[in-house]
Design goal:
The protein has about 190 residues and is mostly helical. Helix content is about 50%, strand content about 5%. The chain contains five helices and four strands. The strands form two sheets. Strands 1-2 form a two-stranded antiparallel sheet. It has a two-stranded antiparallel ribbon with strand order 3-4.
Length: about 190
């Protein structure tokens, strides 16, 4: 259980921040960039949820919780606390393949009820769809930050799969919010020439 008596600690005033294992990193380190990018996705999902997602509210809230799990995963590098692999434990929170599989099932269920794509679509339409498209683009940014981190430090493969699948889910969810795809804004190549 987390208990925060004070919001500020002053420990980051030197430009560093702490990880789960007690180590400290510069706030601009690739690991911190990835954690921050995941936080941006979560905030965008909170904004999207304020537009009334109806039946999709519970799945989005589940994903917001998963994104905190993802942040904890990224904040626990392999080592003394993190162990030698990405197996979760009582003390170490990790994204697991079942979370990725749940997203895949959600994507498949939504795709089955959408009109087929006949064009690339622009990020817009209904307000909820536009907010979900914004969250989707932020998920792609988080994925890029995580893959940059993975070039220098080990990153949980399930975490990488989760963030990749999340952007796919947000794409189909945005289409669903656009009246099942009927309200999608289609790209017209060269329309302004």
């Amino acid at each position: 259980m987390v208990k925060l008596n004070k919001i500020y600690t002053r420990t980051g005033d030197d430009g560093t921040t702490g990880l789960v294992d007690g180590s400290r990193l510069p706030k601009h380190a690739p690991r911190m960039d990835a954690i921050g990018a995941v936080d941006e996705v979560n905030a965008a999902l909170g904004l999207a949820a304020s537009a009334d997602l109806g039946e999709h509210m519970a799945p989005v809230q589940r994903i917001q919780n998963d994104l905190f799990d993802l942040g904890a995963d990224l904040a626990t590098p392999l080592g003394e606390v993190g162990g030698s692999d990405f197996t979760p434990s009582e003390m170490v929170l990790r994204i697991v393949p079942q979370q990725v599989e749940w997203l895949e099932a959600q994507i498949d269920a939504l795709t089955d009820r959408l009109e087929p794509l006949t064009s690339f679509i622009l990020p817009g339409g209904a307000e909820a769809a536009a907010r979900l498209h914004l969250a989707r683009t932020l998920a792609r940014r988080a994925e890029r930050a995580m893959t940059v981190l993975a070039e220098s430090d080990p990153v949980n493969p399930a975490a990488l799969a989760y963030i990749n699948r999340l952007s796919d889910y947000l794409f189909v969810l945005a289409r669903d919010a656009n009246d099942g795809g009927r309200g999608d804004v289609k790209w017209v190549p060269g329309a302004s020439r």
